[in-house]
Amino acid sequence: MINRCRGRKIKLQGFNNLTKSLSFNIYDICYARSKASQIDYLEYIDEVYNSEKLRSILVEVTNIIQAKIVNISTQDYDPRGASVSVLINEGHHPRELEDVMFHLDKSHIAAHTYPENNTNTGIATFRVDIDVSTCGMISPLRALDFLIDSFDSDVVLMDYKVRGFTRDVNGRKVYIDQDITSIQDYISDEILDKYTAYDINIVSDNIFHSKMMLKTLKLDDYLFGPEIEKLSKKERARIKTLVKKEMQEIFECRNIFER
Questions:
Q1: Could you tell me how far CA 234 lies from the centroid of its own chain?
Q2: How many other C-beta atoms can be found within 10 angstroms of the C-beta atom of residue 6?
Q3: Where are the domains of the chain?
Q4: Residue 99 above 50 pLDDT?
Q5: Residues classed as catalytic
């Protein structure tokens, strides 16, 4: 992982009381022509990203940010969807990662999935929400590259905020302990090159928002079901337009109406 911003060395008085919160929304888009294929896709994505898969991803996130797991809760839902909550604290102890029966601490990671589809158009959109909230010196920004690579991330929406304050050894309040002007500062160039990225940042209030949309769309990566083998050139062009429109609407957070 390439971090272009390095945290400042600040001598603190006691525990670092800053809370760093990263909210992460990832969208994976697909096209399934028939109703049967649409159902098959939802069941497929629900199986691929079940609670055990999410659990393994969040355990690795905990490793990356060098935190310690104190409790894990997993849940699969009927008919679809899954959730995982991980309570963590500062201090990484790899041998204890599976020893999860501990008390509540001050930091957490949560993941939730939301598979859905439009039966009229055949477009299916899988969304995963991940929230990482940490106290102390550990930062959720360290895991950005891993999280993006863990999913088929067509559109990524991210919010990051540093809340509260801590004090240095002289008693002076410290409202942020890292150099950051954008979430993109903590994403590798290799990943950023694949996306169109846009920022809305309120640096004075330690609030950062970034969103990314995949630049290149290879249609075969978005087709699901046996019917895709018989698509005409015209039909493929129509589907590609549908997929692009879905991505653009999510990226812009608004519906795009055709004239």
A1: 34
A2: 9
A3: 19-252
A4: no
A5: 107, 112, 135
Listed residue (211, 221, 65, 217) closest to 148, CA to CA: 211
Determine phi and psi for 16, rounding to 5 degrees.
-75, 110
Residue in 215, 224, 219, 220 with CA at minimum distance from that of residue 241: 219
- Indicate the average pLDDT of the chain: 84
Share of the chain above pLDDT 70, in %: 86
Per the CB < 8 A criterion, the answer to whether 155 and 27 are in contact is yes
- Amino acid identity of residue 17, one-letter, is N
What is the reported pLDDT for 108?
84
Task: Name the architecture of domain 19-252.
Answer: 4-Layer Sandwich (3.60)
User: What are φ and ψ of residue 227, in 5° steps?
Assistant: -65, -20
pTM (2 d.p.): 0.83
Q: What percent of the chain has pLDDT over 90?
A: 48
First and final C-alpha spacing in the chain: 44
Amino acid at 45: I
pLDDT (tens digit per residue) in 161-187: 999 888 888 888 888 888 899 999 999
Q: State the SS3 of the chain.
A: CCCCCCCCCCCECCCCCCEEEEEEEEEEEEEECCHHHHHHHHHHHHHHCCHHHHHHHHHHHHHHCCEEEEEEEEEECCCCCEEEEEEEEECCCHHHCCCCCCCCCCEEEEEEEEEEECCCCCEEEEEEEEEEEEECCCCHHHHHHHHHHCCCCCEEEEEEEEECCEEECCCCEECCCCCCCCHHHHCCHHHHCCEEEEEEEEHHHCEEEEEEEECCCCHHHHEECHHHHHCCHHHHHHHHHHHHHHHHHHHHCCCCCCC
